[in-house]
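Thread: Newbie trying to understand structure tokens

Hi all, I'm a second-year student working on a class project, and my supervisor (Dr. K.) asked me to get a predicted structure for one chain before our next meeting. I've only ever worked with sequences, so writing a 3D structure as a token string is new to me. If someone could post the tokens and maybe explain what I'm looking at, I'd be very grateful. Here's the chain:
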Amino acid sequence: MAGWRVHTGQAVALARANVDTDQLIPARFMSVPRVQGYGDYLLHDVRRTEAGDVRNDFSLNNAPNASVLIAGPNFGSGSSREAAVYALVDAGVRAVFAPSFGDIFASNAINNGLLPARIDLAIYETLVSQLAEGTCEAKVDLENKTATIGRETFAFALDETWRTKLMNGWDDIDLTQQHAGEIALFKKNYTQITPWAAPEDIVESTL
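---
Reply by user tm_fold:
Sure, no problem. This is what the structure looks like when written as tokens:
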């Protein structure tokens, strides 16, 4: 996974609260191999009529190149399906700004290079009003945790460990490896003060 620090693109609003993972990608599409891409399934049943026709009044249908999504509270709630993040990433989305997120969704997003940025409700409402049914230029700065969308420049909230992972393109294993020296020292000390726990050769072979 490639890391990133600044992203520029087009922003679009999805002014809906409680968009859950089943809406982001309906379960029936999850048997499709990931290599084929999940982008076409993003919000499939929301973006189309019951007859299967694309809805012209749905904002994302009129913004195929948008890479920054302004979403309502509790975005990504529901089940833990990581495919919901795949659908967003495969559709070209790099950042989602919302007042709140489903916890598991946010964690999955970070591990796939997608920014789940928390913003104040007042900022969300201002951005939705500004975007209406259109798009505007967006710039996201991970290093400073700020974004400029249209006329608005604002700060967003993001856990520092998550920010580090996004900027460096690290997953949990990569992050753990940054502490290899500390882990090795702990292992050495532990086998010395608790020799009854396991012989050192066994410890060495299992760590």
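A couple of things are worth pointing out once you decode it. The longest strand covers residues 6-14. The first helix runs from residue 21 to 24. Feel free to ask follow-ups in this thread.
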